[in-house]
Design goal:
single chain; about 500 residues; alpha/beta; nine-stranded mixed sheet; six-stranded parallel sheet; 17 strands; binds 6-O-phosphono-beta-D-glucopyranose
Length: about 500
């Protein structure tokens, strides 16, 4: 068995319970690229509960065996540990099953129910079920309704049923509310696990630990000492075959509503009373409630949207967004967005939070940078008329770690130079962090929803985003700026901040 320092201590913390995970949309990309590789890696590290089984549910006709083979190929291609270890796979694969059916076909749910009972008897999974909605979002409501109608929606108590819902959770405030309402017709809130895979990243959880397990940061973590905060989620990739989905979604819905809002909440929230689901989520909700809404003319001032045209990424020519497969040639969907927002509360009054994300930027880099205010009086005016600000940068990925930029005396004569203190996960812990989905799937098996989003959280994030979407669809909508693929986005975004950080 592989030793993984990121797992140590976990079994003592809580116990995962025997269960079957049914994946709706089992022949899709998410299952192949993320879910089954994550489960395999958990099997490899002996983290799965005894008897654990997977049922793939999808429309295609497939035998159990053919599905197992497909999943094995998926693990071989996408798992962080490759190639598949035959002895681990053969054991894991015994628990893999397949159920063919249309998502709205009630009879298929009858067959699924029979299969789940059979597995529960054979593998002693005690009737506990997880249903994972990994289909296109248009099917979510009918799957949930069918689970309810066929008696599979169960209860939060043993034998329990939990339902994991993938993003996007709605496409605006009204649709998110409607999905929540429909889900709660059949399920209790404690049974619903709305996933945001950013919360499963080690470095994202470390934001909370950094802030609340160290005495030195929290006293400075407010408007008295912080000048502004920059949150960057940059990607160099383009559409990778997801053009049709993305054209209907755009960067604001795809990245800001969920992942970036979560990063913002963890950075800005007050200390929760405990590291548990409700206390943590209560604090995140307060942040979302305090974000100053951006509506009407504010949007033109505080938000910049862009779309990549042709350019070069990594030394190679790259097509423009409108030339990507599945994207309409006249598309006005944004592939870049930058926002300046304010959190109107005691801690953050007047501190700008700058968010930017985009596709086809020069590199993949996600980071949260806290820029501190300058010293009140500079002694060294003669030696250095201006010094660089202190910046605490939490690198979420890649090259996970945290750095602190300070000013130091240069060697010899009295000169002032910026220096950086750097912590790297790889160096300090001797291993790369596990995939986000591994952690989140395990949390769901343990009934821990701390790293999943609650109903009010999702709706408040949509409330903020919908204000921007409305302004963008108005007649006098602010411009969509075209930026060359491989650049740092539209120049118009430069007016939001004195200087964007080089990440
Ligand atoms: C997904 C988005 O939620 O997150 C993608 O739909 C994006 O467009 C991806 O590429 C980024 O995730 P990660 O883990 O690679 O940063």
């Amino acid at each position: 068995m592989q030793r993984n320092p990121f797992r140590e201590g976990m079994p003592r913390e809580r116990s995962v319970e025997p269960c079957v995970m049914t994946i709706f949309g089992a022949t899709g990309d998410l299952t192949r690229r993320k879910l089954v590789p994550a489960l395999y890696n958990l099997a490899r590290e002996r983290m799965l509960p005894p008897g654990f089984a997977v049922v793939g549910f999808a429309r295609r006709e497939l035998s159990h065996e053919a599905f197992r083979e497909e999943m094995r190929r998926a693990v071989d291609t996408f798992s962080r540990s490759r190639p598949v270890a035959p002895e681990i796979w053969s054991d894991f694969a015994k628990g893999i099953h397949y159920c063919q059916g249309d998502f709205g076909d009630r009879q298929a749910y009858g067959r699924l129910g029979v299969l789940l009972q059979q597995i529960s008897r054979e593998r002693n999974t005690r009737g506990n079920n997880i249903f994972y909605l990994a289909t296109p979002p248009g099917h979510y409501e009918s799957i949930i309704a069918a689970l309810g109608a066929s008696g599979l929606s169960g209860s939060p108590l043993p034998p329990w049923t939990r339902v994991i819902i993938e993003k996007p959770f709605g496409h605006d405030l009204d649709s998110a509310r409607e999905l929540n309402r429909r889900a709660q017709e059949c399920l209790r809130e404690e049974q619903i696990y709305r996933i945001d895979h950013y919360l499963g990243k080690e470095t994202v959880q470390n934001i909370i630990v950094m802030r609340f397990a160290n005495g030195i940061f929290e006293p400075l973590w407010n408007q008295k000492y912080i000048d502004h905060v920059q949150i960057t989620v940059a990607e160099d990739l383009g559409m990778e075959g997801r053009g049709a989905y993305y054209d209907a979604s755009g960067a604001l819905r795809d990245m800001v509503q969920n992942h970036m809002m979560q990063l913002l909440c963890l950075t800005a929230m007050e200390p929760p009373v405990a590291f548990q689901a409700d206390p943590v989520r209560n604090e995140k909700v307060k942040v979302l409630e305090s974000i100053r809404p951006l509506e009407g003319d504010d949007v033109g001032r505080e938000v910049v949207r862009g779309q990549y045209g042709r350019g070069h990424v990594g030394g190679r020519g790259a097509a423009g967004f409108r030339e990507e497969q599945g994207v309409s040639p006249g598309s006005t969907t944004e592939t870049y967005v930058a926002i300046r927002l304010f959190i109107d509360n005691w801690r953050w009054a007047g501190v700008p939070f700058l968010l930017r994300t985009g596709k086809r930027l020069p590199k993949r880099a996600t980071e949260i940078a806290i820029q501190f205010r300058p010293v009140p009086h500079l002694l060294f005016r003669k030696e250095a008329p201006a010094i660089e600000p202190n910046v605490l940068a939490m690198r979420i990925q890649p090259d996970e770690g945290i750095s602190l930029k300070m000013t130091s005396k240069g060697p010899g004569a009295m000169t002032l130079q910026p220096v950086v203190m750097d912590f790297r996960y790889g160096t300090s812990f001797g291993a790369d962090p596990p995939e986000a989905y591994e952690r989140l799937l395990l949390d769901c098996m343990a009934g821990d929803s701390t790293l999943f989003t609650r109903r009010d959280e999702v709706e408040l994030a949509w409330r903020f985003i919908t204000g921007i979407l409305d302004a963008w669809s108005a007649e006098d909508a602010p411009a969509l700026h075209i930026y060359p693929a491989g650049s740092w986005g539209p120049e118009a975004a430069d007016r939001l901040v004195e200087k964007w950080r080089r990440v």
